[in-house]
Amino acid sequence: MSVQNIKLGVAPINWTNDDLPELGAENTFEQCISEMALAGFEGCEVGNKYPRDTEVLKKALNLRNLRIANQWFSYELTTKSLQENVVEFNKLLDFLGAMGCTIVGGGETGNSCQGKPVPVFEGKGMLHSAADWKKYGKNMNELGKIASDRGFKLSFHHHMGTIIQTIEETDKFLENTNPDYVFLNYDCGHFYFAGEDPVTALKKYISRVGHVHLKDIRPKVLQQVHDEKWSFLTAVKNGVFTVPGDVEGCINFPALFSILQENSYKGWAIVEAEQDPAKANPLEYALIARNYIKKNLGI
């Protein structure tokens, strides 16, 4: 068993939230990446406060010995044409390529309720027929081939409030996409949120996993999401997510770490647990996660 090929990073959404800009509005880009480095991470994803000038961004990251691991892309294949998606996709690949990044992530945001004030368990869009899934998979394959031809691995994020949340939906997605071009951005927190066992999911999909997000769930808050019919963003603001190592969490991370080790997973593992920074100090929680992962995974 080996962890030598696992790189550990953290997401800026723990400091400044892309979907809820008021969360962490007071935190600067420089504070964010400085605290990432101080906590002991070697990479990060891209947030809304990151400069888009690649030379400026490279200098800031190099000073802190950090590198870019991935960036979210909002696929809109259910609401826009493939060509419209291709144009925006290539723009992001241009940026990420300049930063030396080889992973492009993201999930389907067309027909999504993740950013809307509707109950997250009631408002998601659906692909209803086999033909719908086949068409969606074909279009994702096109984007995946573009990514592959340019030296990237497209790692698609199953996500609450979107068309792909559950194991059943993830099965259909993977069955209708080419394993040479389309991989999974596995997220244990989103699988638990969807009512699935994250350990079962990782065992099932490990051969298709191209990128990993590590976050935990506060089960008491998740129960409130169900009982009070909260939206996804209301759940986030109220702390449904937390980091690995938080005593309020419930996910079996040692079992997940064992699966990654036993299957010689090669790639990034990113701590990504969006919380309200006013309630959960980002540096404090980054250190909780970093120390827990070092103790339990050895990196």
Overview of the molecule:
- The protein is α/β, with parallel strands linked by helices.
- The protein has one domain: Divalent-metal-dependent TIM barrel enzymes (TIM Barrel, Alpha-Beta Barrel), CATH 3.20.20.150.
- The protein contains eleven helices and ten strands.
- An eight-stranded parallel sheet has the order 3-2-1-10-7-6-5-4. The chain has a two-stranded antiparallel ribbon with strand order 8-9.
- Strand 1, helix 1 and strand 2 form a beta-alpha-beta unit.
- Helix 3 packs parallel to helix 4.
- The protein is globular, with a radius of gyration of 18 Å.
- The mean pLDDT is 96.
Number of domains: 1
- The first-to-last residue Cα distance is 13 Å
Helix vs. strand class = alpha/beta
Please summarize the sheet with the most strands. Answer: 8 strands, parallel
Our count of helices gives 11
Overall morphology:
globular
Class, according to the CATH hierarchy?
Alpha Beta
Q: CATH homologous superfamily - what is it?
A: Divalent-metal-dependent TIM barrel enzymes
Rounded mean pLDDT is 96
Compute the number of strand runs: 10
The helical percent reads 40-55%
Rg over alpha carbons: 18 Å
Question: Do you know the CATH topology?
Answer: TIM Barrel
What's the architecture in CATH terms? Answer: Alpha-Beta Barrel
Domain Xylose isomerase-like TIM barrel: 36-281
Organism: Emticicia agri
Pfam family, one: AP_endonuc_2
EC number: 4.2.1.44
